[in-house]
Amino acid sequence: MKLLDLFSGIGGFSLGLERAGFETIAFCEIEDYPRKVLAKHWPGVPIAGDIRKLSYNRETQELIDDGKIIYRGAIDAICGGYPCQPHSFSGDRKASEDSRDLWPEYSRLISEIHPRFVLPENVLGVLSSENGQFFRGVLRDLARLGYDAEWFNIPSAAVGAPHLRARIWMVAYPNETQFKGGSISGRIQTEYTNACYSRRGQDKPGVVRTLDGISSQMDRLGCLGNAVYPEIPELLGRATMSYEADIK
After folding, report:
1. pLDDT tens by residue, 192-236
2. Are 227 and 167 in contact (CB under 8 A)?
3. CATH fourth-level superfamily of 2-247
4. Which of 12, 94, 126, 169 is a good FRET partner for 86, with 20 to 30 A between their CA atoms?
5. Integer distance in angstroms from the first to the last C-alpha of the chain?
Protein backbone atom coordinates (compact mmCIF):
# COMPACT_ATOMS: atom_id res chain seq x y z
CA MET A 1 0.00 0.00 0.00
CA LYS A 2 1.17 3.52 -0.86
CA LEU A 3 1.71 5.43 2.39
CA LEU A 4 1.73 9.14 3.27
CA ASP A 5 3.58 9.67 6.56
CA LEU A 6 2.50 12.83 8.45
CA PHE A 7 4.33 14.41 11.42
CA SER A 8 7.09 12.03 10.40
CA GLY A 9 9.86 12.83 12.86
CA ILE A 10 12.76 10.50 12.06
CA GLY A 11 10.56 7.94 10.29
CA GLY A 12 9.67 5.41 12.99
CA PHE A 13 6.16 4.96 11.62
CA SER A 14 7.34 4.33 8.08
CA LEU A 15 10.16 2.05 9.23
CA GLY A 16 7.68 -0.25 10.94
CA LEU A 17 5.02 -0.13 8.24
CA GLU A 18 7.51 -0.76 5.47
CA ARG A 19 8.60 -3.93 7.28
CA ALA A 20 4.96 -5.01 6.94
CA GLY A 21 4.85 -4.28 3.21
CA PHE A 22 3.86 -0.62 2.88
CA GLU A 23 5.69 1.81 0.56
CA THR A 24 6.24 5.40 1.73
CA ILE A 25 5.54 7.85 -1.09
CA ALA A 26 6.00 11.08 0.89
CA PHE A 27 6.74 12.49 4.33
CA CYS A 28 5.52 15.65 6.02
CA GLU A 29 7.85 17.05 8.69
CA ILE A 30 8.42 20.71 9.55
CA GLU A 31 11.53 20.48 11.76
CA ASP A 32 14.93 20.76 10.08
CA TYR A 33 16.97 18.06 11.86
CA PRO A 34 14.50 15.17 11.41
CA ARG A 35 14.07 16.22 7.77
CA LYS A 36 17.81 15.59 7.32
CA VAL A 37 17.45 12.17 8.94
CA LEU A 38 14.56 11.29 6.61
CA ALA A 39 16.49 12.48 3.55
CA LYS A 40 19.44 10.28 4.55
CA HIS A 41 17.45 7.09 5.08
CA TRP A 42 14.78 7.60 2.40
CA PRO A 43 16.66 9.27 -0.45
CA GLY A 44 14.34 10.27 -3.27
CA VAL A 45 11.17 10.27 -1.16
CA PRO A 46 9.75 13.82 -1.09
CA ILE A 47 9.47 15.58 2.26
CA ALA A 48 6.75 18.22 2.64
CA GLY A 49 7.12 20.89 5.30
CA ASP A 50 4.09 22.49 6.89
CA ILE A 51 1.03 20.22 6.89
CA ARG A 52 -1.13 23.33 6.52
CA LYS A 53 0.37 23.79 3.05
CA LEU A 54 -0.07 20.15 2.01
CA SER A 55 -3.09 19.13 -0.07
CA TYR A 56 -4.29 16.41 -2.40
CA ASN A 57 -6.34 16.67 -5.58
CA ARG A 58 -8.23 13.40 -5.84
CA GLU A 59 -9.30 14.00 -9.45
CA THR A 60 -5.74 14.41 -10.72
CA GLN A 61 -4.20 12.29 -7.92
CA GLU A 62 -1.63 14.99 -7.17
CA LEU A 63 -0.08 15.58 -3.76
CA ILE A 64 0.81 19.27 -3.54
CA ASP A 65 3.18 20.91 -1.08
CA ASP A 66 3.04 24.71 -0.99
CA GLY A 67 1.89 24.85 -4.61
CA LYS A 68 4.38 22.25 -5.91
CA ILE A 69 3.39 18.76 -7.01
CA ILE A 70 5.55 16.27 -5.09
CA TYR A 71 3.76 13.00 -5.93
CA ARG A 72 1.31 11.72 -8.53
CA GLY A 73 -0.76 8.65 -7.85
CA ALA A 74 -3.18 7.01 -5.46
CA ILE A 75 -2.53 7.07 -1.71
CA ASP A 76 -3.79 4.01 0.12
CA ALA A 77 -2.91 4.85 3.72
CA ILE A 78 -2.05 7.79 5.96
CA CYS A 79 -0.14 7.46 9.22
CA GLY A 80 1.21 9.87 11.80
CA GLY A 81 1.19 10.99 15.39
CA TYR A 82 -0.36 14.45 15.45
CA PRO A 83 1.24 16.78 18.06
CA CYS A 84 0.89 15.44 21.58
CA GLN A 85 1.73 18.65 23.48
CA PRO A 86 -1.92 19.79 23.65
CA HIS A 87 -2.81 16.53 25.44
CA SER A 88 0.29 15.53 27.42
CA PHE A 89 -0.01 15.27 31.21
CA SER A 90 3.29 17.17 31.43
CA GLY A 91 1.83 20.23 29.67
CA ASP A 92 -1.04 22.69 30.05
CA ARG A 93 -3.47 20.36 28.21
CA LYS A 94 -5.22 23.09 26.24
CA ALA A 95 -6.27 20.54 23.61
CA SER A 96 -8.20 22.24 20.79
CA GLU A 97 -7.36 25.65 22.26
CA ASP A 98 -3.65 24.99 21.76
CA SER A 99 -2.14 26.47 18.60
CA ARG A 100 -0.22 23.21 18.13
CA ASP A 101 -3.42 21.20 17.72
CA LEU A 102 -3.17 19.98 14.13
CA TRP A 103 -5.84 17.29 14.15
CA PRO A 104 -8.06 19.52 11.94
CA GLU A 105 -5.34 19.47 9.27
CA TYR A 106 -5.01 15.69 9.60
CA SER A 107 -8.78 15.38 9.20
CA ARG A 108 -8.73 17.68 6.17
CA LEU A 109 -6.18 15.49 4.39
CA ILE A 110 -8.21 12.38 5.17
CA SER A 111 -11.22 14.04 3.52
CA GLU A 112 -9.16 15.02 0.45
CA ILE A 113 -7.41 11.66 0.00
CA HIS A 114 -10.03 9.27 1.40
CA PRO A 115 -7.47 6.48 1.92
CA ARG A 116 -8.29 2.86 2.66
CA PHE A 117 -6.62 3.08 6.07
CA VAL A 118 -5.68 5.81 8.55
CA LEU A 119 -3.28 5.11 11.43
CA PRO A 120 -3.08 7.98 13.95
CA GLU A 121 -1.13 7.89 17.23
CA ASN A 122 -1.00 10.04 20.37
CA VAL A 123 -0.33 10.01 24.10
CA LEU A 124 -2.72 8.52 26.64
CA GLY A 125 -3.83 11.99 27.64
CA VAL A 126 -5.68 12.40 24.34
CA LEU A 127 -8.45 10.19 25.75
CA SER A 128 -9.18 12.59 28.63
CA SER A 129 -8.45 15.95 26.96
CA GLU A 130 -11.36 18.35 27.44
CA ASN A 131 -12.97 15.71 29.67
CA GLY A 132 -13.01 13.29 26.77
CA GLN A 133 -14.61 15.70 24.32
CA PHE A 134 -11.50 16.04 22.15
CA PHE A 135 -11.26 12.32 21.40
CA ARG A 136 -15.00 12.17 20.84
CA GLY A 137 -14.46 14.94 18.30
CA VAL A 138 -11.81 12.87 16.54
CA LEU A 139 -14.24 9.96 16.29
CA ARG A 140 -17.00 12.29 15.07
CA ASP A 141 -14.72 13.72 12.39
CA LEU A 142 -13.83 10.24 11.19
CA ALA A 143 -17.49 9.16 11.22
CA ARG A 144 -18.48 12.28 9.28
CA LEU A 145 -15.91 11.32 6.63
CA GLY A 146 -17.35 7.80 6.43
CA TYR A 147 -14.82 5.97 8.62
CA ASP A 148 -15.11 3.51 11.45
CA ALA A 149 -12.23 3.35 13.94
CA GLU A 150 -10.71 1.06 16.53
CA TRP A 151 -8.09 2.12 19.07
CA PHE A 152 -5.63 0.37 21.33
CA ASN A 153 -3.32 1.19 24.24
CA ILE A 154 -0.06 -0.51 23.24
CA PRO A 155 3.04 0.38 25.29
CA SER A 156 6.45 0.14 23.68
CA ALA A 157 7.74 -1.88 26.66
CA ALA A 158 5.41 -4.74 25.72
CA VAL A 159 7.24 -5.28 22.42
CA GLY A 160 10.83 -4.91 23.55
CA ALA A 161 11.55 -1.25 24.34
CA PRO A 162 13.53 -0.35 27.49
CA HIS A 163 10.90 2.22 28.47
CA LEU A 164 7.11 2.16 29.00
CA ARG A 165 5.91 4.76 26.45
CA ALA A 166 2.19 3.95 26.57
CA ARG A 167 0.43 5.30 23.51
CA ILE A 168 -3.00 5.26 21.89
CA TRP A 169 -2.91 3.76 18.38
CA MET A 170 -5.86 3.94 16.01
CA VAL A 171 -6.80 2.12 12.84
CA ALA A 172 -9.59 3.75 10.83
CA TYR A 173 -11.13 2.46 7.61
CA PRO A 174 -14.17 3.29 5.43
CA ASN A 175 -17.44 2.00 6.85
CA GLU A 176 -18.05 -0.31 3.90
CA THR A 177 -14.78 -2.12 4.67
CA GLN A 178 -16.11 -3.40 7.98
CA PHE A 179 -19.09 -4.97 6.27
CA LYS A 180 -16.63 -7.09 4.27
CA GLY A 181 -14.01 -7.90 6.88
CA GLY A 182 -15.52 -7.22 10.29
CA SER A 183 -13.42 -5.83 13.13
CA ILE A 184 -9.64 -5.63 12.81
CA SER A 185 -9.12 -6.01 16.58
CA GLY A 186 -8.62 -9.77 16.52
CA ARG A 187 -5.85 -9.55 13.95
CA ILE A 188 -4.09 -6.81 15.89
CA GLN A 189 -4.37 -8.85 19.10
CA THR A 190 -2.77 -11.81 17.34
CA GLU A 191 0.09 -9.68 15.98
CA TYR A 192 0.53 -8.02 19.38
CA THR A 193 0.72 -11.38 21.17
CA ASN A 194 3.23 -12.69 18.63
CA ALA A 195 5.37 -9.56 19.04
CA CYS A 196 5.33 -9.86 22.83
CA TYR A 197 6.36 -13.53 22.83
CA SER A 198 8.97 -13.16 20.10
CA ARG A 199 10.84 -10.53 22.12
CA ARG A 200 10.57 -12.15 25.55
CA GLY A 201 13.99 -12.61 27.13
CA GLN A 202 15.82 -10.62 24.46
CA ASP A 203 18.32 -7.95 25.41
CA LYS A 204 16.73 -4.54 25.07
CA PRO A 205 18.67 -1.73 23.38
CA GLY A 206 19.21 1.40 25.43
CA VAL A 207 19.83 5.06 24.74
CA VAL A 208 22.80 6.33 26.71
CA ARG A 209 22.38 9.99 27.58
CA THR A 210 26.01 11.04 27.77
CA LEU A 211 28.12 13.66 26.06
CA ASP A 212 30.17 11.03 24.24
CA GLY A 213 29.08 9.07 21.22
CA ILE A 214 25.92 10.96 20.23
CA SER A 215 26.22 13.43 17.39
CA SER A 216 24.03 16.55 17.49
CA GLN A 217 23.03 15.43 20.98
CA MET A 218 20.17 17.82 21.73
CA ASP A 219 18.55 17.37 18.32
CA ARG A 220 19.00 13.62 18.37
CA LEU A 221 17.62 13.11 21.86
CA GLY A 222 14.65 15.32 21.00
CA CYS A 223 13.96 13.19 17.94
CA LEU A 224 14.25 9.97 19.93
CA GLY A 225 11.87 11.36 22.52
CA ASN A 226 9.26 12.16 19.88
CA ALA A 227 9.74 9.00 17.81
CA VAL A 228 7.39 6.03 17.77
CA TYR A 229 8.76 2.55 18.46
CA PRO A 230 8.78 0.92 14.97
CA GLU A 231 7.74 -2.53 16.20
CA ILE A 232 4.23 -1.25 16.97
CA PRO A 233 3.52 0.24 13.52
CA GLU A 234 4.94 -3.00 12.13
CA LEU A 235 2.41 -5.16 13.98
CA LEU A 236 -0.42 -2.77 13.05
CA GLY A 237 0.77 -2.88 9.45
CA ARG A 238 0.85 -6.68 9.37
CA ALA A 239 -2.68 -6.84 10.73
CA THR A 240 -3.83 -4.22 8.22
CA MET A 241 -2.21 -5.97 5.24
CA SER A 242 -3.78 -9.29 6.30
CA TYR A 243 -7.16 -7.59 6.66
CA GLU A 244 -6.81 -5.93 3.24
CA ALA A 245 -5.90 -9.21 1.57
CA ASP A 246 -8.95 -10.99 2.96
CA ILE A 247 -11.51 -8.37 1.95
CA LYS A 248 -10.36 -8.19 -1.66
Report:
1. 888 887 765 454 555 444 444 445 555 665 666 667 889 999 999
2. no
3. Vaccinia Virus protein VP39 (3.40.50.150)
4. 12
5. 13
